[in-house]
Amino acid sequence: MNALELLKTDHQKVKELFKKAEGANAERQKQLFEQIKKELETHTHIEEMIFYPAVRQTEELEKMVLESLEEHKQVKTLLREMENLTSDSEKFEPKLKVLMENVEHHAEEEEEGKMFPKIRKLMNTEKLEQLGQELETAKGTGNRAA
């Protein structure tokens, strides 16, 4: 699978988990949050360690990568804050909504909407496939260690 398809698949999986969490009770939201957190930690790790370093080829992409790293920091902060809350905390559901909004903005608008089309123009199919393989390998390793 090419790198962009793999990352889009991750985005879709997390989006579906957020949808399930929206209508769920507090206990179920906490369970889904644990899945969301695991998915996001793996996803941000492979982006930061493999994908972003590979795509920082032009000044424009360099700026997009730096912005994406800042967005990752915001998401990681929210994940840490939420991890320490109980499911019945009045702050949990609002933070979950903010997390969802941040992740969807980052994934759909920034990456899929702006960054991925530019990468498609700069990288050939072979390079995207190779990068996808590296991401899959890293993802598999990350999931086994968790």
What does this protein structure show overall?
- By secondary structure, the protein is an all-alpha fold.
- It has helices at about 5-20, 25-55, 60-85, 90-120, 125-145.
- Residues about 140-145 have low confidence and may be disordered.
Structure described in brief:
With 146 residues, this protein is an all-alpha fold. The protein has helices at 3-22, 26-55, 59-83, 92-122, 125-145.
> Per DSSP, what share of the residues sits in E-state strands of 2 or more residues?
under 5%
Give the overall pLDDT as a whole number. 93
Tally of separate helices:
5
Major beta-sheet overview: none
Cα(first) to Cα(last) distance is 23 Å
Overall number of strands: 0
| C-alpha Rg (nearest Å) | 16 Å
Helix content: over 70%
H/E element sequence: HHHHH
Mass-distribution shape: elongated
List segments where confidence is low: pLDDT < 50 over at least 5 consecutive residues: 142-146
In terms of quaternary structure, what is this? single chain
Helix and strand content put the structural class at mainly alpha
